[in-house]
Structures
1.
Amino acid sequence: MQLQERINAFVKLGDFIRQFSNTNIRKDEKVEHNALFFDGFKHQLKLAEEHNGWFTLENITFALNSWADALTPENLSKWVQPYDFSKVTPKTVAIIMAGNIPLVGFHDFLAVLITGYQVLVKQSSNDKHLLPFLAKYLEYVAPNFKGNIHFSEENLEDFDAVIATGSNNTARYFEYYFKDKPSIIRNNRNSVAVLTGNESTEDLQQLSEDIFRYYGLGCRNVSKLFVPKGYDFNPFFEAIYHWHPIVEKAKYANNYDYNKAVYLMSEFDMLENGFFMIKEDESYSSPIATAFYEYYDSLDALRTKLKAESHQIQCIVSKNFMENEVAFGHTQKPQLWDYADSVDSVEFLLAI
């Protein structure tokens, strides 16, 4: 397949996905192969929600909307433009996917196929319904993809490189197990927000999207706040209050109740509003329904700290604080060229 053929296939996939990009699912008669795939994918959404309580229809459709917005001719062409695909030789790349949020491994899947390689996917058991169906759709709109997409539930064999995502413990296992293969190994990272006290109500409302989307389970979710000494948290709590219905979801409520009980029994100081807690803590990774916060003395000292600890951080949400910051409300809307852990996966693939 030529590069443009691969781009065209993913554009058609984006058109198909767009039908499911909000909870009011609507069929578009102009989309190719809808007679074969529309009802089937609608059923896969239902299965995914039933299988994983964190995958609500709202969160699944939010993820699908993000990918529909990404898979446009303009975005795909802009993404691939800097790379030279002319010397690609056939290779197979294994992807071991996480399952914390819907379709979290799709970018790796896309990168391998857009490069012209075969992909061998090992999915998380938490997110196993959506991607195989979308892969089938790809094979229909671009039959040359047939034979290039493989899924496996067994040990992975016969591949040339690997992209693996897991916990810190799993990542150490991956590094040892795949030590003889070109690899990208990803482990736990978290995202932070830097507040100065000058944020508008709208800024803080946008920040709540970065905190609560996907119940805070993604590495791009903000789990830590850096605030100046004497910071008044009242405007923050007021701005995020529109998310209070989240506590009506049983899995979230159970985590909120449990973590609140732990903090109270341990006599930790924390602030809470009935559905969310903040606790002073130096760690980056906070439990569900909780954000940690830490005071800073100066913005310059904080920049130095965050640069030194960048290996623990996925995104920094702020306003005119530092280079490569993410705007409030945009952590879960990455562009195709916003690579996880700032590692260019296409560049890695082309260098295999």
2.
Amino acid sequence: MSAPATTITAVTPEGPEVEAAPAKRQRLRFVANPKATTGLVVLALFCLIAVIGPWIAPYDPSARSSDLLQPPSAQHWFGTTHLGQDIFSQVLVGTRGVMFVGLLAGIVATALSVLIGVSSGFLGGAADEALSALSNVFLVIPALPLIIIVASTIPGAGDLMIALVIGLTSWAWGARVLRAQTLSLRRRDYVEAARATGESTWRIITVEILPNLTAIIASGFVGTVIFAVMSEITLAFIGISTISEWNWGTILFWAQSQQALAQGAWWWFVPAGLAIAVLGTALSLVNFGIDEFVSPRLRSSGHTRVKTKDGRTVRMKVGFTPVLTTHDKTAPVTPVVRVDEAKGTV
């Protein structure tokens, strides 16, 4: 006796039968991410201000006037200092130093971490031991105290020197991460195939290894930029770096030294603080966008949609498992019998 055929379909908790819609190929997925787009737009705006800030500043940031400690107005958008200096002009001019130090330190640290980390993981042997020892040495060097010592001992240490010191002392952690990832990639089938066809070592590294490390490299670059920006602002705030060059930390230094908070001059420190917060948020959004671009689970969580047969759209949830059910009502139903062995009952 043969059992009647049944139809098995996937059912979601929110509706009946579901048919998976064909997946659409997305182009420029990273730029299409709202987080990454927002972060890149804000970051591009800061870079633009860093370039043209001194040209569009309405006043000389160091020029004094008779408008002493004035709140924001149509003449002075962010108010003035105790010497009548325009704070809006100081913020615009100070953006260049912050972005210069952050981007230059990020480029130097990322280049060193890629060069040393990937070379160490791929070459192996004595080269790996030597480069790993070098990474371990720089890994335990405290970057901020070293920057303070260099900036205080070298007279007139400007943004270039600070950026180089930050970049030369911030590459070790990224190099360790890249070395670990390279060790896992060096024995992959496509790398072995390239090696078997006689490809040179550097071509294998640049063509086969580095494209698979792009997300880690980008994430390390963003983290280094954040650290460099905060280090530059910290040095200016505590008065270690030169206070003759304007940046956001210099504005906070003068606001703190002149007790702006006690005088109720909130406009003296709030704009620079907001600029720091917005820049840090933009860099973090770019980092989140990179993570979602790399991880399929983060990229598709809560965004996968399917259509039911009745035309409704259902959003798939993270961790959802389809349920299999039968829809042939003529099929015989087999009763489920449970036996309680302890009591001896059915």
3.
Amino acid sequence: MSDTGPHLTAGRTAHGPYALDIDPGTAGWSHSALRIVELAPGATHTFATGDSEWIVLPLSGGCTVRVDGRDFELTGRTGVFAGVTDFAYVPRDAEATVTSRDGGRFALPGARCTHRLPARYGPAAGVPVELRGAGRCSRQVHNFAAADVFEADRLIAVEVLTPGGNWSSYPPHKHDEHRPGQESRLEEIYYFEIAPHAGADGFAYQRVSPSADGGTDVLAEVRTGDAVLIPDGWHGPSIAAPGHALYYLNVMAGPDAERAWLIRDHPDHAWIRDTWRDADVDARLPFPQEPSPPQEPR
């Protein structure tokens, strides 16, 4: 576990060009990583991928990603609540340069890996959007790098948007044991952004409860720019305050031979899934998708 604890408030891990910088060493685990880089108009950021694979994911703004002699033009989006975005996959053992003509904020989810896969463009049109849950447990999932959607060696990453007042990441679930066909071992990072309302900043709550003696135990008020590290334990709910939509980016990776998201629900709360069959999805979903022109990589 990170020396700074599992709840990392905004700015706590800022380092060099990164507003947030979590790597396996600072997190105290073996695989998962996340960086947030903020670029002024016309600015460039170059990084060596080392022993990890990465995705360049626009949070706001667009950019060009240059890697392995190719340029990938990312249209991006105005913000995380404006719909899905295109993205670029950057392999290990490479150098990547991110350039933003108009400026923006970009997430770099990553994972230590073994195999070097080709650099690739991920179009926004190819991102599956899932409406999960029902009623006050309704949320929207952007499965841009889910294990069964986008090829990577270790990295799994998705975005979740939750309307204000709803419970997300519920029922509590875990993935900290290797149970073939039932549960994966995955280290997970939650990165949060919360929509303001009438000029007031929003907040949310994140719970992680131990799955074994001495395990991770968190009840945190989270705000934009915060992250929570989950090396183990039942995680959820993620609770959005009324009037403030909640966004979180999930970054996962682990040591199992199979790259899979296999979870086990908390036995005291798994029954909630049965109630969704007779309930409607929150009418506020899906979140509107801003129009964007089709963009092909060069």
4.
Amino acid sequence: MGSNSTKSTRAKCTDLQMSFQYSLYATTYILIFIPGLLVNSAALWVLCHFISKKNKAIIFMINLSVADLAHVLSLPLRIYYYISHHWPFQRALCLLCFYLKYLNMYASICFLTCISLQRCFFLLKSFRARDWKRRYDVAISAAIWVIMGTACLPLPILRNAGLANNTESCFANLGLQHISMASTIGMVTVAELGGFVLPVVIITYCTWRTRTILQEFQVPPQNTKERKKALWMVLMCAVVFIVCFTPYHLNFPFFMMVKQRIFSNCSFIKSTLFFHIISLCLANLNCCLDPVVYYFMTSEFRDGFLEHGSLVLQSCVKCKAGALEIQHRKEDLQTISLEFMDDSKTM
């Protein structure tokens, strides 16, 4: 009897629905959608003009923007669901949106790590940077997409079971398929070590090493400026990583154990589920924070944006000037025609 009571308590706590999650998710996605769509579209447009700058991590930034845009474009469906509490679309579309969320998270982690590592490496080995080929970054990016795309597949597969009985539910209301303890430990270990611990170590080392180089060596002013930009970029990668991805990965092992009904303490279960919701909202902020890495800290990006922006502005000014000139000519023609009519009446 005691065993059945414990299992019943675990099931009741694990299946607990946080009433605030719908409004919080909807509000978060609404606030992220427009800024995320605009800044990442603008970033992708400008970065593509600097694809020849092979030693500035441009390829990784382009892929980071693509990852963010893929997730941002799925947000309207998430907003609709969390407002209406109803999913009228196909099951495959729900799983695709769910998949894109985690693909964006882990692809972003990889590309942020690559940006930090490359900037630090080129700062340490400036001569090696001259021989670095753009195809190396393209190959690394392709490998990241294949590896992360494959690694994230189990996440929607485990949630697919929750759609079998109720096709109108999606996202937070999806159940989690029960798997063995060995499989749970393996999945959590891979996600934590490969998707969190290793990137944290690399980004922390790059930040420390870049800062040390900047402080220890006396270099010409132009090189100091370049090194400061590299330091700020690495620091921003660290900030985005800490703010967006650290809370989720700190909570992820406990969340998986809660979903597999390992814990029986109801208060702990509620706290874990509550923090999971908050950490997911923070993870979504990376769509708006990632562009900060290359917008505010990369002079080439700012120069390109201003250059293309000025061309658009000049075109607008020319169009406006042309319209004013046409208007003036119309007014002159009207004046001439009126004078001609007056002369005709006088005659």
